Every structure is written in structure tokens, then in C-alpha cells.
Amino acid sequence: MLTLLEQLDKGSLWQSPGGIHPPELKELSNTQAISRLPLAKHFIVPVPQVGEQARLLIDVGQTVLKGQLLTEGNGFLYLPVHAPTSGKVTDIKPVASNHASGLAVLSIIIEADGLDTWCQLNASDPNTLSHSELIFKIKQAGISGMGGATFPTHIKLNTASEIGLVIINGVECEPYITADDRLMREHSHEILKGIEIIHRLLSPQRIIIAIEDNKPEAAKAMQQAISLSNLPANSTRVTVIPTKYPSGGEKQLIQIITGKEVPSGCLPSQLGIVVQNVGTAYAIQDAIYFGKPLIERVVTFTGKNIHQPGNYWLPIGTPITAALERVGFQPSTTQKLIIGGPMMGYAINDTYVPVLKGTNCVLAPSDDEISPDMDEKACIRCGECALACPALLLPQQLFWHAKAEEYDKAASFNLQDCIECGCCSYVCPSDIPLVEYYRIAKSALRIAAEEKVLAEQAKLRFEARLQRLEDEKIAREAKAKAAAEKRQANMKSSDKDAVAAAMARIAAKKAAQSHEVNQPVNTQSDKAVTETTDKKTAVSAAIARAKAKKAAQTAQSHSSAENNPSQAESTALNEQDNITTEVMSQKDRIAAAVARAKAKKAAQNNQANPSVLAVNNVSEMTTSDDVKNDKKAKVAAAIAKAKAKKLHQTGSTDNATEIEPTETHSVIITATNNTVITEKPVTGSKIDATDLDKKARVALAIAKAKAKKSQQKDDKIIGYEDQHPLASRSEVHHNEPISTDIDTESVADVVLNDPEKDKKARIAAAVAKAKAKQLQQTETKNLELALSNAASQADNFDSATLDKKAKIAAAVAKAKAKKLALQADKKD
Amino acid sequence: MAFKIASSPHVGNTLQTAKVMQRVALCLLPGIAAQLYFFGFGTLFQIAIAVITAYAAEAVILAMRNRPIKSTLADNSALVTALLLAIAIPPLAPWWIIVIGTLFSIIIVKHLYGGLGNNLFNPAMAGYVLLLISFPVQMTDWVSPMSAAQQSVTLSYAWQVVFDSASDILLAGHNLAIDGTTMATPLDTLKTDLSMGITTHESLAKPIFSGMAGLGWFEVNFAFLIGGLIMLKLKVIRWQISVGILSALFLCSSFGFLLNPDTHVSPIMHLFSGGTMLAAFFIATDPVTAATSARGRIIFGAMIGVLIYVIRTFGGYPDAVAFAVLLANMCAPFIDHYVRPRAYGHRSGS
């Protein structure tokens, strides 16, 4: 078994299936050397990429030189466009293109000055250039595949795959066309120079120059050129292949030379093969050695209605009309004018279209050279098309489905593998324009695929939205459920607890009172130090807990009308438990009470400014407590209350701007924002209170933190109450046990009268302030998290300073807010 | 000036449907000539009646279907159908036999299914089967080969039998006037003999089996083979179906013959008797009703070959070409669905 390389060296050939042998008629145009025609007066240079991947470098009225760059861009498929001759840009407008569709394409119209003056050319020696420089030069020369597909050459030469074989395509299997034939005969050395550059870029093991056996002169010329070239010995050879259409097709040629098939939907580079046209090799040579951009090519003018058939160097952009005039075109009445060969070329309606980089032939056949227009007849399923198909398709089945517009079924017969070579149409005894059917089916499939992609995107968007809504709903429900469960659990706490709690509270209050009397000032300042586990502390803890429970209970009983218990509520209870386990000094407790009162008041104020009655009631209720409280506590409470009020005021004004929060989240966010905003005024008020004594300040700081927290909650509540005003909500707050509640006026007096100044207290104040700030910050970041975190944080940091009760109250308020939120959700 | 626009390719070969059909008809000529020589001029009248009936029927049905009449008649497909049916039926069958057969073929089998290219069954064979089932007596009375009867069927005699004596045949069944000139076909004789317990060896000793596969029959089949080879050469047909039929028939009959020569006839007898060659080259190769892919066609042909052998050997009818072809026609879409060539670039593993 020979290896592929050995087979290649031997010149072994494989059979390509199908194919046809149409009359070649090459002798019409291949007898004379390539010549030049007089320069056209106008040139049409299409710049289809302008607007998408490129922009123009010139403007109307500007003078250009031959070879001058006209566009600039950087897209993947972008190819520079150059002026084919020197002259003046007279217009830039859409002009009918040299394309089967004849659709207009933006084109630069250049009026030639007849001088054909070159711009500055950068000739170079390829041996001094690096790979990337070579690729860049090839790209800058605007070189694309000259075989007709006009794929940018620099991409093909810059492939990531390892290339083992380069096939230089000199097959030219289409009838009539002899442009490559003449080019190989006359410029074999230049082509070989181009091949040398390709060899440098891809370093393949072998280079095969494939030529059909109907071009013996070309094969001979190329063989001679190889022997004179600088290519490594035995790396390059000419392989003559039997004449058969469409052997020149890339896939077919690969099959004939190597026996391999390019997998469907893949590029030859996947097999390590690159196919380049001989004309492309010539253009590469021109670009590197002379710096000439691709601005002219060999075009075959042939057909019996052309008097001087032959091959001509034509600048890209030359109007076909102008060229036809110069070769003696005499149209018949039913003239067809074909760009390309008779098998795959397209008929054009208007000849005022430019020569393009892929225009290899202009065919003007007489009526007897081409088939007359025949009516399509019934398919007799003769199967000749299948025998002729080089892609081994079943053209008749494709036709059947394409005609019935069953494009999906046509696709299942591998319609996409059709290369539109026209063999099936050629052999069809019923004159069915099979290729036309396939083109229609292909474009229909393409459109369908595009629509499908768009529909898929729309569907994904829609589904994502549904999913998001669903997720939100599920999250809400889960939250509600969890809260309900927790609440259920809490409900177990019996009425006894409540009674006990009340009792404990009363006892605690008494104890606190007596304790405070004993240690009026110092204990408060000593808060951090004196973490004594004395009985009183225990009592106070119990009280606090009881209070918390009661508060929770109250909240629950109030909320029992609504079946939505809140998670936060239970969290608050848990917090309380935690708190109670901590050792609390009396002072702490007092401060806590003060702060809580503050918070409550703040809440009260927030909710029920108009409900003066309720406030009064509360204050009346608490007056007895007031008496028991020492002055300090009162002072602190008053300060805090004042603060809270101020804070509340600021908050409420802010709230006013957002009267109707419509969504839970937005409300929460609003609440957070409000808190943030209110922070500054609070600080301001703190500064104002410099004349207050330290203790008071400490209390103030504590209260402020508390107040903030409560403020937050209150804001939330306000938000909800705007929507669902519930009287019971404010009741909840009022009914909560409030140990210290003093009228603002009296508090102010007390404050002024208080002379005590203590360093420790100051420290505590600073600490508290820091706490408050920290708390504030956290809250702004994440409201939900912050609520619990801040509370616990504060506890850890300075348990003495922070008021547990206030915290509890805050928690209660929070719970309330949550409940409200849930309720709001439900109502939504 | 504006030029004419057309989709590529702009050239095509000149072998069009009408020409294909014309060539098929021309390639039938050697076989027709042999048939005329050995079985008299009756076939000539049958052909004339069939062709006239076919064109007339096609013109009428095209008019009813609002289809172009002239261009469709010019495709010569009706001509081929008429020729095949006329060759297949007994040369001296009464005129109305061929008329009924042709009308059925053209109108019902071909045009009611959508005309050329859309018919599921081979029109000639469907018509033949209709006649065989409906008029078994007329369809099995075959003319004796010339040399056996020692009496030639002249033009005038054939005319008389085909047109004038129709009623006599109908009434008498076996009219004396033609009694001496008709007889069962060799395959029919063989089947009858085998059913009577006579071995093939004894049966083949009968004068009707003189020659390689029955007097006259071998020559006619050989002439059709020649015509078929010419068609292959002209690429009017492709080899797959014909080779499929003949090789399958040959293999099956060889196997049977080797197994039990007393009840099975030789492969030569199978290949060169009855309508084997006509079917292999002219009937089964009708592309409309055959499978389309190369492999599918081999399967299609082999199927016909096996069916011919099975029906001839085990079935109730002496010849089986028509049945075999119709049965295979039914399977053609099925074969096409499952037997698809591997397209370029779809090689497994590559």
C-alpha cells in the first residue's frame, strides 16, 4: 500500500463521480497570446464593503493614481480596493453590479485621464519578509481567489491547520474559458514565483499543479518553470488530469488528486489541503515582487458573436460594454451574454457592469451554440442527473421536493452539498432547469434558517422572562411559607409565657429602678467593663426577653387578622433570646429601654403623627414608668426621641416624594434610601448637641442607631400603609410596653440641666456612633441582611451601649414591616 | 441593449425525452422483425391498432386534462407503450383485445395517475395483465411458429383473423380456420405438462421445444437482446436493471435446475423464452416506474428476476413478466426511500 505522498508523486489519480463532457470549444480563444485593449474611459469600481467593514478614503472630485488605495477597513473578510487607473473620481453611487441579480452596489466611478500613472509601488524581496509581512502585503494588494469564488486569499494562506498539500488549480474545466490556460503558457515563471511564496507561507510537503489534459502546452510550460524554480526538489509536480467537467471544482479536484472527500460542511484545510488558482498565484507574485495590487486580470472574450475572441488583460472595473466594443461584439436578436462559462456562468441583462476580480470570461454565444429555451417537461425519473452529479446527490429527488416546496425534505437529500455545477440540468432530457430549482430551495432554506434563529432568540427571551417571573413568585411563596412555619412554631409559646413575661418585666423594672438609684452615673459609663452577672442583670435579661416575647405576641395577635406571619418576627424573637443570654448591666438595660422608647416613638410619630390621641395615651400610660426612671435615662431618652423625631421628619419628607410605592422591592429600596438620606441630618443634630453631656450623647448615639433602624422599618411601614392603611398597625406599636416615654419639652429641660461629663461615656458615645455608622453602611448595602446583621454586630461590639429592648422593638418593627410586605405581596 | 436572462447552465445535451422514446422504439425493431418472421403478420396489425388507439386516447385525455396536446404527443411515450403492448399480446388476438388494453394503459394507468412521469405502474404491463386476467383464452392462443405450422400467416390471413373472425372466435372458441395456426406457448406447454406429471425432459422432447428455448421464441428473444444492447450502447438505458433481472433469473433457475432437473427447466430456457428479454431491456427499464438510484435499480431488477422465476415455476401462470414488473413497480418508491447513494463528503469516518 502506497502512502498518499507516494501516490501523489506517482501522479495517481482517483475517480470523481459523475461529471459530463460538454463541447470544450476552447480553441476559439486559446490560440492567441494575452493582449491588452485600449483603456476604457470610465471605470466602475464597486466597493460593496463600504458601510459595513470599510470606509472610503477618497471623495468625489479627487484625483487618484493607478493602484491607489480607495478604501480602508478591518473586518475579517475585508479586502482593500484600489484604483485601476489614474484619473478623477467623478461619482460615488450605487451602480448595477456584475452579478446574476444585477442589484446595485455602491461604486466609485473613475474617469480615466488616459495617462495610467502608477502610484508609488513598494517592490520587495519575499526572502526579506516575515510571514506576517507577506500575509499583510497579500491582503493589502486586495488579492482574492481568481477562480470565481473570490474568497480573500490572505485568509486561505493564513490557516491555522497544518497544510500538507497545496493544489494549484489550473484545471479550467469550464468550456470556452482559456484565461488560465494562456496565463500558464505565457507566465509560468511568474506563477511559479507566486507558488514559491505560497510554499513559504504554508510549507506543505507537496505542491501539485493540476492541469486538464486538453491543455498540454500549459502543462509543458509549467513543468519547465518548475525545473527552473527555487522550490525544493521533488516537492512540486504537474499532474495532468483527464478532461471532465467539473474537475476544476475544489472538492472534485481534491478527490481526483488525493482520493479524499472534503467532509460536508468543512473546509479543505481540515484535510490539510489548500487549493489556489493559478491566477491567484500570479497575483501574489505581482503583489510581493512589484508591490502591485490586484487591479487587472485576464479575461477570456469568446463565443461566436465576438469577432476577436481571445484573452485580454483588463483592469478591474472596466465596464463590460467598453471591452465588448473593443473585441468586435455583434449581438444577435436573442443574444445571451454570459459572465463566466456556459455551465456555471450567469447571464447579465445590462453590459454596463464592471469586470470584477472573479470575472474570468465573457461569453457571447451565437444562438446555435447554446441550448434554445425549452419548456420544462415532465421528469421521467430517468436518473441521468444522478449519474452526472459529482456530489453523488439524487438531483431528481431534490427537484421533486424543491418543486413541491418541501424544502426540509430537499435538505434531507443533502441539498446543501449541491455545488450548482449544472451537470444535472445539462443531461436532463426533460429540459428541467434543475439548478434553478435548487437555488430557490437553498435560498428558501437559508431564509427559513435565519427566521428560525430569530424566532429562537425571541423564544429564549420570552422564556427567560417567564422564568424570572416564576422564580420571583416561588421565592415569595417560599418566604411566606417559611415565615408561616416559624410563626406556627412561635405560637407554641403559651399565654403563660406572656403572663410570666409581664410579671418579669414589672419585676425587672423595679429592680432596675433600685439599681439605678444606687449607681446613678458611673455604672452607665462603666458599661463595657461592668459585665457583672449579678442577679439584677439576670432579671433584666428575663425582663427583656419577656418584653420581647410580649411584643412579639402582641404583634402576632394583631397580625392574626392577617394570616401572613413574618419571618422577621421570629428572627426578632431569636435575637431576643440571644440578647438575653448576654450579660446586661442595668445601665444597658436602661439605655435599651430609652432607645426602644425612642424607636417606638419614632415609629409612632412616623405612623401616627395625626393620631395624637394614641400618643397621648401612650405617654399617659408610661408616666408612671417615667417617675421611676432616673434622670439620666430620661435625658438620654429625650435626646434620642428628639433625634428620632428629627430623623423621622426628614424621613417622612423624603417619603413624601414617594407616596405610592407600587412594588415590595421598590419600597424596601426606598426605605433604605430614606435611611441613607436621613443620616446626614441626624449627624447634624448630633453636632448641635455638643453642649449635652457625654452620657446623654452616648445614649443619643445609641438611640440614633436604634432610631435609624426603626426609621427604616417605619419607612417601610409607611410605604405599605400608603397602600393599605391599617389602623391596627399603629396600635401594635402603641400597645407595646414602653418603659420610658417622656414629653419632648420636659426632656429638653432635663438635658440642659444635666451637668455630668464622663470620659467613659464619651468613649461609649464614640463607639456607639461608630456602630451607628457601621450599621448605617451595612444597611445601605443590603437592607434585609443588614437588619439582622447590624443588630447582632452591634451586640457583639458593644453590648452595653446598645439597647436590647430597643433592638427588640426594632425587630418587632421589622417584623411588622415584613408582615406588611408579605401582605402587600399577597394583595398584589 | 438588454440581453436575455437565463439560469445556468446555458448549454445542454440534445438527448431529450422524445428522442429517448424514439430510440427505444427503434431498438424494438429487431425484435419486431423477428416476431413478424416467426409468428406472422398479425403483430403488424396489433401494432397499428395499438398506436392509433394510444395516440387517440392520449389526445382525448390530454384535452380533458387541459394539457398541451401537441407537445405531449410528440414525446413518443404513447408510441412506446403501444408498441410494447402490441408485441406482448398474441399476434392473432382479435382487434378489440388490443384496443381495450391500450385504452386502459393510456387512460387509466398513465393519465389518471398524472401522465408521463407520474404513473406508478408500467402502462403496457398493466394493460397486459388486465387483458390476461379478463380474456385468458384469447391471450393464451399463440400463433405457431412458421416452421412448425408449415403454413405462413399471410397479411390477408392475419387481417381476416384479427378483424373479421373476431365474432367467430368469440362464438366458437376455437375456430377451425385458426386452429392449425395457434397453440400454446412453450412455457405454457411446459407448465401443463409438468402439471400432468410429465418430466421436463419428456416435455422438452416435443417439437415446440426445438431450438434452444422453443422454436421462434429463442430467436425473438435474441433479437430483443440485440436491441437492448444497442440501447445500452446509446445510453438510452443503463445496465443496472437489465443485468439485475437477467442475473437474478439466471441464478435462480440454475439453482433450481441443478437441484431438480426433472421439474425445473434450464436457465437458457428461462432467459430466452417468453418475454424475458423484452422485459429486461424494454419494459422494466421504463425509468418512470423503476427505482432511480444505481444500487436501487440493481435491487429493482433482481427483484423482477426472482419474481419471474418464482411465478413461472410455482405460480399459476406460464409466464410472469408482467406480474413481476408490476410487483416491482409497487416496491420502487420503497426502494428509492431506503437505497440512497452516499453523497460527497458524507463518507463515514472521513
TrEMBL record, chain A:
Subcellular localization, as worded in the UniProt entry: Cell inner membrane
EC number from the UniProt entry: 7.-.-.-
Comment on bound cofactor: Binds 2 [4Fe-4S] clusters per subunit.
InterPro entries attached to this UniProt entry: 4Fe4S_Fe-S-bd, 4Fe4S_Fe_S_CS, Ion_transpt_RnfC/RsxC, Nuo51_FMN-bd, Nuo51_FMN-bd_sf, RnfC_N, Soluble_ligand-bd
Binding-site residues for [4Fe-4S] cluster 1, renumbered to this chain: 379, 382, 385, 428
Residues covered by the 4Fe-4S ferredoxin-type domain: 370-397, 409-438
Database matches in SUPFAM superfamilies: alpha-helical ferredoxin (SSF46548), Nqo1 FMN-binding domain-like (SSF142019)
Cofactor(s) needed by this chain: [4Fe-4S] cluster
Coiled-coil residue spans: 452-486
Pfam families hit by this protein: Complex1_51K, Fer4_7, RnfC_N, SLBB
Chain positions recorded as [4Fe-4S] cluster 2 binding sites: 389, 418, 421, 424
Record region (Disordered): 511-534, 549-576
Membrane topology recorded in Swiss-Prot or TrEMBL: Peripheral membrane protein
Ranges of Polar residues composition bias in the record: 515-527, 562-576
Keyword Cell inner membrane tagged: yes
Keywords for the protein's UniProt record, in alphabetical order: 4Fe-4S, Cell inner membrane, Cell membrane, Coiled coil, Electron transport, Iron, Iron-sulfur, Membrane, Metal-binding, Repeat, Translocase, Transport
Domain of life: Bacteria
Biased composition (Low complexity): 549-561
Family: Belongs to the 4Fe4S bacterial-type ferredoxin family. RnfC subfamily.
Subunit (UniProt): The complex is composed of six subunits: RnfA, RnfB, RnfC, RnfD, RnfE and RnfG.
Purpose of the protein: Part of a membrane-bound complex that couples electron transfer with translocation of ions across the membrane.
Protein name as annotated: Ion-translocating oxidoreductase complex subunit C
Organism name: Shewanella subflava
Biological classification of the source: Bacteria, Pseudomonadati, Pseudomonadota, Gammaproteobacteria, Alteromonadales
From TrEMBL, chain B:
Membrane topology, as annotated: Multi-pass membrane protein
Keywords noted in UniProt: Cell inner membrane, Cell membrane, Electron transport, Flavoprotein, FMN, Membrane, Phosphoprotein, Translocase, Transmembrane, Transmembrane helix, Transport
A Pfam match: NQR2_RnfD_RnfE
Chain segments annotated as transmembrane: 20-38, 44-64, 95-113, 120-137, 208-232, 239-259, 265-284, 296-314, 320-339
Cofactor(s) recorded in Swiss-Prot or TrEMBL: FMN
FMN phosphoryl threonine modified-residue sites: 185
Compartment(s): Cell inner membrane
Enzyme nomenclature, EC number: 7.-.-.-
HAMAP family per the UniProt record, alphabetical: RsxD_RnfD (MF_00462)
Biological role: Part of a membrane-bound complex that couples electron transfer with translocation of ions across the membrane.
Subunit structure: The complex is composed of six subunits: RnfA, RnfB, RnfC, RnfD, RnfE and RnfG.
PANTHER family: ELECTRON TRANSPORT COMPLEX PROTEIN RNFD, ION-TRANSLOCATING OXIDOREDUCTASE COMPLEX SUBUNIT D
Similarity field: Belongs to the NqrB/RnfD family.
Designated name of the protein: Ion-translocating oxidoreductase complex subunit D
Gene: rsxD
